[in-house]
Amino acid sequence: MKLKKLLSSLLLFLALTAGYSTAFAAYDNILIINSYFTNYAWTEQQLNGFFSKLKESNMFAGFEYHIENLDTKKMPFNAEYREQFVQMIKFKYYKTPHSPKAIYITDDNAMTFFLEDLNELFPETPVIFSGVNNLDLMNKLDPKKFSGCFEKKDISRNVDFIIKHFGRNKRLIFIGDNSPTASIINKQIKKTMAEDYKGINYKIKTIPSISDIRSVLETVREKNNIYILTTIGAVRHGISRATPISVVINEISTYIGKSPLISMEDVFVREGVLGGYVTSGRLAGRYAASILETLLQKPEKFKNYLNYPKKTNEYLFNYPELQKFNIKIEELPENAKIINKPFSVYEEYKEIIWLVTLILIFMFIAVVMLELKIIADKKFRETERKMREMLRISRHIIYHFSFRKQKYEYISEYASEILGFQMDFFHTPNSSLHKNFMNTDDYSEAAAKIEKAAKNKEKSIELSYRLKTVDGDYRWFRDVANLIYDENNNLSAIAGTAYDVDTEKRVNDAMNIIIAKTSRMQGVEYFNEIVKDICQILQCKYVFIAKVKNENKAETVAFCKNGELTENFIFSIKNSPCSTDRDGTKCIYPHNLRLSFPECEMTRSLGIESFFGFQMFDETGNKIGLLAAMDDKPMEKEQIYQNILSLVSKRASLELERIGYINKLNDERERLHVIIKSIGDAVVVTDLNGTITLVNRTFENYYGKKSSYIYGKNIKDILFFYDENTSEKAENPVDEILANGLTVSKEVSALLETDLGERFFIEDSVSPLRDFESKIIGAVLIFRDATVKRKVEEEQAKQARLESVGILAGGIAHDFNNMLAALSANVDLIKLLDKQNKFSEKISNIEQLIGNAKNLSQQLLTFSKGGRPEIKKVDIKPLAENSFEFMLRGSSVSYEIKTDKNLWTALIDLGQFSQVLQNLLINARQAIEPDSGKVTASITNYEADETDKVYEPGRYLKLVLADNGPGIEKKQLEKIFDPYFSTKEGGSGLGLAITHSVIKKHNGYIHVDSKPGKGTTFTILIPATLQKPDEKHTKNNFTISGMNKKILVMDDDRMVQDSLGNILTHYGFDVYIASDGTEFLKKYRELMDKMEKPSLVFLDITIPGGMGAQEAIKKALEMDSEIKAVVMSGYSESDAMLNPENYGFVDVLKKPYQLNDLLFLLDKYV
């Protein structure tokens, strides 16, 4: 022990005699707050590491250390105890001589206590911590105040060590206390084991007190266990007192017997404990001390030391336990520490060895320090020489004036250089500072300031004065001086540095004059004046102010060259000095500009060598302009440039922004004017007297005259309002608005004095026009022609009626076709049975009647479908020839049709396109008759490519139909496709509207061109294909045999069931009938089960109140994917009738059908 005390004394002596950094004041305070108590093993380890690190770096003796222990292992850490502790801390350390320069905190309880109770008490004091387990604080602590190292048990490395030396089949038992720290560690264990060690069996056991050890471990006791200590410092003895760690470990190791006991904390590694990858209190303390060193030596780096806790863990093992489990030292991880090794000379006598070594080191240090002093003295003399040289070449007047001796002890040579006097002049006796060469008025003011400062015992003072030059002129200087007092506290000398600010002062004076002169100027006048003045003050070649047009372009608004205004120009911001911000808003290049920006056209053309620019921004931060001074020589006095341009740029920026707002306002006004002019409703604006001040184009069209004629007239003379019902004259709504300021919206009849003298139904809205103070300054009348609206409403009502009729027509056609189908089938059956043709003539008459009825039904169907085309591939030439022949037969109109030789195939609905041709030919015939005339038509192939601006790319057939009738007026031509518009008295106005609708639904195009007296031409384009037209089956002789074949018919109409069933039975088929989809599916299943699957099924698409064909075929396909089904309908809008194969059907049978249609299907599919 004596040897250790001697060694400690020697170390303390070395620490006290070693050199200290001059940055540290002696006896600054460091406050240490421990969660536990000083002699607690873990705390003791941290403090030993902390102090040993400080001693190594010669910082230990420069501070007083105050240690406060929360002692939470023994004391109840409740609110009362915490409050008492806060009061004690406040009494001892808050704004007292012991106030800490830094605070060192160990472990979680102290950290939590500080954050909740002491943080506001020491808001500016930096805090270093160690041993803190709560990693959640890592992202919550302010890194400018808090720094340190967190403690984290490395579960993975300990589990890896166990797997390496004991295998994967062991069960791991993690042992800990019930402290908050243990809870954090347990969460880490669960997370690590779940993510990285899924196949390993483990348990976590908590030991609240020493008496619980055996009962807790009894539940998991097995020979296959490996036990791991996490944290056991909070194991209690009784209610509150903590049990010594040695007692806890001895109790655990005794109980577990020969099983390995791993530790995660260095203080637990003792007799009976193997060791492991442990958290080291010593390393944590040393790391905290290194942070304190950084804080005191390089405080700017303090915030960078909030670190993850990997630097404070190490491998530590107990030698006897390694031997016990046959673990070789060379198998341990690199740098592992081993304790309790067998005796060695070094270990036994290391204190003496170290003492001798330290004495030798001390002697060496003494020699080195002596040598260093010699070197330091030499360096000091060299530094002194350099300092004198620096003072000699300084561009400021540096002086030391003694009031006692009334002379300069020192004055730099720059005084002679700047003022022109010889150095001897300055060493002649002076009664006071600079008296021989300072301006008289300035001297009096400076002397008064020095006297007042000396009376108040001030240490420094700032003066401003003029010094006379050898030529008799004066230059301005700003002097920052220190007052020096003698032992009696009387002013004895003054030492200072006088800065030449003459140019800056004169520039500022000139700028004040300029600002006063330009304060009332605006816009271009201000910009022109300011660039001339700056050019004159700075004596540079160019000055300009530019506004930014876009990201890459700027345009000067004022450009001065050699003091004279010159022509503005546009330049590219890219590759120019303005393309980068050297310092926020500034872009400064004092020399070699063209080398820096060789691609800049502006600098190259103007021969620029230096550039100083200020970028200007609006209130939202957008760049709006640039103020720049340029020269063809290098720039001097950079600070002057900055001061002047910075001052001017603020006002210039505001002026640019103001002009921008004005331009935007003008643009908005113009935009508003354009909007009003382009509004579809008529707009009239009047003043308070009702005089019209603004109208839009729509109103001009209504009135029939230009605005130049309308402006200045009173609205009463232009518009006359009448009651819609009585036609009596009504009050002008503008008068009502101007009288009471209300907003009126009403529908009236107004007579507008147009060229045609027409009267319109209008809807108008009249509102007061107000200024910024909400005073009425006029009225705004907005109205629209309600005539069209009423007509549209009538058309909508008419359309609704047509839709109702269409629904009725569809229903009638459906039932009618069912009856015709039954009738036609029965007639066919009679023909089949009338072998001797006794009734052939009568049957023929019946068939003709059925055909007429079928045509009537088809017209009803077309009307009811709303015009949806059933597209087929059709040869259009015979269709056109038949239509022309039929529609113009017996009239006075001749016709001629020309076609290409190889016409493409049209993609049309045959019936609907026939109606288009009929409508166009009826119009042409009615236009020509009773006179004679001619209709010509041409049909050609037309292909539109990607460059076609009118038609979508693709193949078309182009039909041009022209007549030589009287033609159509232009105004009427614009409405020719409108519903119910007709140029003929009594015309319905629907023919061309339907024609237009049909062509559009075919994805085609239709155009009309007409000139009065020269006839009308319609041009139609319809889609075409290179494929051949659809073939119609023409076979009449079928050999049908239904022997041993079955057909299933589903239809809700009894007549259809009987008639179709009779014909099929006539041809030998076994016929089964179903009335709806449910019955059909049942019978189809029964036939399949009997191995008598139908050869063909006929399904009616619509079954009122039951399952129709589409739903039935879906379910039938689930039973039999090879089913052959034909869909039937007398009328349906379903797509299944157009594209049966998309819905599982093989074909379609439309009712009423002819016998050949049915036989064709039987021949094809049975």
List keywords for this structure.
45 strands, alpha/beta, kinase, ATP-binding, Rossmann fold, 7 domains, 7-stranded antiparallel sheet, phosphoprotein, Beta-Lactamase, single chain, transmembrane, 7-stranded mixed sheet, about 1150 residues
Main sheet makeup: 7 strands, antiparallel
CATH architecture of the largest domain: 3-Layer(aba) Sandwich
CATH top level of the largest domain is Alpha Beta
CATH superfamily of the largest domain: Response regulator
Portion of residues in beta strands equals 15-25%
Helix content estimate: 40-55%
- Mean pLDDT metric: 82
DSSP, total strands: 45
- Rg estimate, integer Å: 54 Å
What is the total number of structural domains? 7
Outline the low-pLDDT stretches.
1-26, 862-867
Total helices: the number is: 32
- The computed structural class is alpha/beta
CATH topology of the largest domain: Rossmann fold
Give a written overview of the molecule.
This is histidine kinase. The protein has 1166 residues and is an alpha/beta fold. The protein folds into seven domains: 18-150 and 285-309, Response regulator (Rossmann fold), CATH 3.40.50.2300; 155-280 and 311-339, Response regulator (Rossmann fold, 3-Layer(aba) Sandwich); 394-500, PAS domain (Beta-Lactamase), CATH 3.30.450.20; 518-665, GAF domain (Beta-Lactamase), CATH 3.30.450.40; 670-785, 2-Layer Sandwich (Beta-Lactamase); 876-1025, Histidine kinase-like ATPase, C-terminal domain (Heat Shock Protein 90, 2-Layer Sandwich), CATH 3.30.565; 1046-1165, Rossmann fold. The strands form nine sheets. Strands 21, 22, 23, 24, 25, 26 and 27 form a seven-stranded antiparallel β-sheet that branches. α15 runs antiparallel to α16, α16 (523-538) runs antiparallel to α19 and α26 (910-928) packs antiparallel against α28 (991-1001). The longest helix has 49 residues, at 345-393. It is flat, with a radius of gyration of 54 Å. Mean pLDDT is 82; it is low at 1-26 and 862-867.
